[in-house]
Design a protein that fits this description.
Elements: H1 2-8, E1 16-21, H2 22-32, E2 37-40, H3 47-60, H4 63-68, H5 70-73, E3 78-81, H6 85-97, E4 102-107, H7 108-121, E5 130-136, H8 151-156, E6 160-161, H9 166-183, E7 187-192, H10 193-197, E8 199-204, H11 226-239, H12 243-252, E9 253-256, E10 263-267, H13 270-280, E11 288-293, E12 295-297, H14 301-308, E13 314-318, H15 324-335, E14 341-343, H16 358-369, H17 384-389, H18 403-414, E15 424-425, H19 450-461, E16 471-476, H20 477-493, E17 498-504, H21 530-537, E18 541-545, H22 550-562, E19 567-572, H23 617-629, H24 647-655, H25 659-667, H26 673-679, H27 687-692, H28 699-709
Parallel strand pairs: 2-3, 2-4, 4-5, 5-7, 6-7, 10-11, 10-13, 13-14, 15-16, 16-17, 17-19, 18-19
Antiparallel strand pairs: 1-8, 6-12, 9-11
Length: 710
Amino acid sequence: MIRKTIDILTSYSAPLKVCEMGNVAVARGAIEANVDGVFSYPGTPSTEISEVFSHVNSFQNRKENEEKYPQQTAIKIYFEYSINEKIALEKAIAYSIGNKSALCVMKNVGMNVACDALMSITYQTIVAPLVIVVCDDPGCHSSSNEQDSRYWGKMASVPIFNPATPEESLEQTKSAFLLSAQLKLPVIVRLTTRVSHTRGVINYGKLSKKNNEASFERIPEHINIPAKTSAAHAKLLNKLRSDFINEHGVKYNQIIHHQNAKIGIITSGVTTVYVKEILERSASKNNYSILNLGLICPFPTNIVLEFLNLPLKKIIVIEELDPIIENDVRIVAQENKIKTAIFGKGFSTLIPTGEFSLDSIEKTLLDFTKDKTLKNKNVSIKNAENILKDLPQRPPTLCAGCPHRATFYALKLAVPRNIPDVILCGDIGCNGLGALPPLKMIDTINHMGMSVSMAQGLSKAFSTSNQSNKTVAMLGDGTFFHSGVTSLLNAIYTKANILVIIFDNRTIGMTGHQDHPGATHLNKYHQIDLLPFIRGMGAQYVESIFPFNLKDSFRKINDALATKGVSVIVAKSPCIFLPEFKDGNIYRKKIVVDHSRCNTCDNHEDKQIACARCYSPLNNLSRAKLKITATNHIPAKEQLCPANICNHGFFNSIIEENYPEAVKMVRDKMLFSRTCGDICQCCFLAPAEIFATDHVNCYRTTKRLFLLKN
């Protein structure tokens, strides 16, 4: 990574060709545009952009690198992972107003968090360029929805670039900074997963050596009050009619027209690449004209009208997700009385959900054109469905050794899933994997940070019923600082009766192990200790657990559940992939399971005896719960019953009221059961003497104690 960091910070008089993914291209484009500060919250598919600047920031601030690489460290780029996207954008806006160019990076749903700042700053003004990169996720590969971020252009009245390749990602990012400076408006660069993560050849060019000096001018535009907003709105709309928009539109909105073409295709984003690849392999590619739109907001009416006026028989609009371009094309056609037939969503494979592929676009074009030369001539694998049908499903699971597993297990012992009136509200990230088998310890998952609010609402909904158990909220440490703090504060304020478990694995795990306020290794940040922070809020019960200490974890979870009001448990243990997991290195311990040994009583003399080994999930949980709640522990070798009966199996069967199984252990699986039972010395002792002498191995004694208890 050091070599890549040096390359991305180096200026080249002759272009250097590199093969990089779209996200890295965006980062290089911002650097070539002389970005001063980068603000982000990690989230796939945008994470690699911020990771580049995280490495850049770390590299530039090492003393030894300042001497060894003076060119790469001369102009330092500030970078931070803010605690959420709203704060990231607000700080980026302030950076711009301070005359420093800024980049703000997030995924699609992050824009929902940041939109309050976006919707108001456009009525005011920025000073230095401000570019917002938003990465959409058609198909929901790693997102809670597949919303279309192109809508933000119309809602906030800001320009949007929609690159199709890594090369366009670099160039359009540079243009976005230029257009932002010209209009004094934020500009959005919108990518999708396939553009973000596709690799392509890009050119590293020259870097500016300009170092912007911070400054602040006291002007009326920095103050947003209702008396001025109406005029500000009109001024904003006038900015979108600027000639600067047309200059960039000419560069990125292009018509590829062939004289004899009778069919038109309008595309934008990654679908442009698919369409061009399919047409390129056809002998009849000159029969089609293409309009590729790279700057899509404000809508490029003039070039669209020019394309609609070509002598084409029919036109198809191919875009992922919503028919945003299609609807605007239809408006232009209707206003100008264009008679050419226009096709879009609903035709062939063009549905408004999921992401497109080469195969789906190929089918659409075949259905639309009836041109068989467009079909891929590569031979597909025969019987592919039969080959794949026997492959086992591999859903995502928590990593082996993950501390979250132990936290979920301790909670399962305290709140068995057969108790219907305890609702478990989960959250996104690694924590959300607890909803899947084999754990199945989550009942609800919504958007980031909603677990605590959801628990409050459900608890209040059931407050008038007979349900007395707490509702449980579970979220990660990164999520807690992102959007859980305010929800917890509201819970304490409204006297909610909930248990909040913070799964603190010391990092933002699922997006690549980034720092957050509660876990940082950087001296420029101040780490916040969760326990005193939460106690200061006024929670009734606040404790920390080490998840792998099941006995202590079980006790504290039960105490938290029994406490009236807001209880908070911080399950603190580092992610196993953190470098600092053990002595500065990832520590891997080899564990071997000996299936011939019983870890409960060490009895292996008779393989036929019924024992405490698992018969059902309920039996497993009962045995585990009894182990960690027992106060009197006897070494396994001392637990051997002379009658060769598994006392744990017998005892657990009685606890679970499975009396037939307990009888079978004695009647069917032990010779001379009555005789052995009668002569066992334990049966002549009183209960107090039995516990005093640790004689708890006899089935008759267990039976007597059970009868005395009941």
